[in-house]
């Protein structure tokens, strides 16, 4: 019984740390958010924080996973394309998380990088969710039926990721408006 209680407390503390880490990274950015600052925000020492995550890399991956879980929870029951646009709109309010995502996504191109499995699984999950929704949008006449749903998803994903990088360089870019324009382009005429 004591093990279950200790385990539950550990899970709760890990969630508390992730909530603090999401705030710190969103506010201060990936480069300026140190383990010490995240630990301070969670009421721990850096060693205490790393007890829950093992390394800085594991912590930052867990932050991205927590961000994705928040987005999924916030948009549960929402049509995929509407949820996708809502997340893109929300991203302008959390520039540090956008930077963290972009940095780790680029580094995950290295087959040996610890973030690679996360990004591979995330992309596969996104494709799975989007595939049926895009096919349904094609059947309903909202997306051209002659387009391969896999291509639509890849193009949309690549556009969103590329826009995030462009937006980090020029915050005047309206990422959501550009994605909405893409969706107009792939509508039947």
TrEMBL record:
SUPFAM superfamilies from the UniProt entry: Homeodomain-like, Tetracyclin repressor-like, C-terminal domain
A family per Pfam: TetR_C_6
DNA-binding region: 34-53
Signal peptide, first to last residue: none
Alphabetic keyword roster: DNA-binding, Repressor, Transcription, Transcription regulation
Protein's organism: Microbacterium soli
Name this protein carries in UniProt: TetR/AcrR family transcriptional regulator
Domain HTH tetR-type: 11-71
């Amino acid at each position: 019984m004591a093990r279950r209680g200790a385990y539950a407390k550990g899970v709760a503390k890990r969630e508390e740390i992730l909530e603090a880490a999401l705030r710190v990274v969103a506010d201060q950015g990936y480069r300026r958010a140190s383990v010490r600052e995240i630990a301070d925000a969670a009421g721990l020492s850096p060693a205490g924080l790393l007890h829950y995550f093992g390394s800085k890399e594991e912590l930052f991956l867990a932050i991205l996973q927590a961000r994705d879980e928040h987005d999924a929870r916030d948009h549960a029951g929402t049509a995929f394309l509407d949820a996708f646009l809502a997340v893109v709109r929300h991203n302008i309010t959390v520039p540090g998380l956008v930077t963290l995502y972009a940095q780790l996504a680029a580094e995950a191109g290295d087959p040996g990088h610890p973030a690679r499995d996360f990004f591979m699984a995330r992309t596969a999950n996104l494709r799975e969710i989007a595939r049926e929704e895009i096919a349904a949008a094609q059947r309903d006449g909202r997306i051209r039926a002659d387009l391969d749903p896999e291509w639509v998803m890849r193009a949309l994903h690549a556009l969103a990721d590329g826009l995030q990088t462009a937006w980090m360089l020029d915050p005047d870019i309206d990422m959501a408006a550009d994605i909405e324009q893409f969706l107009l382009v792939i509508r039947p005429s």
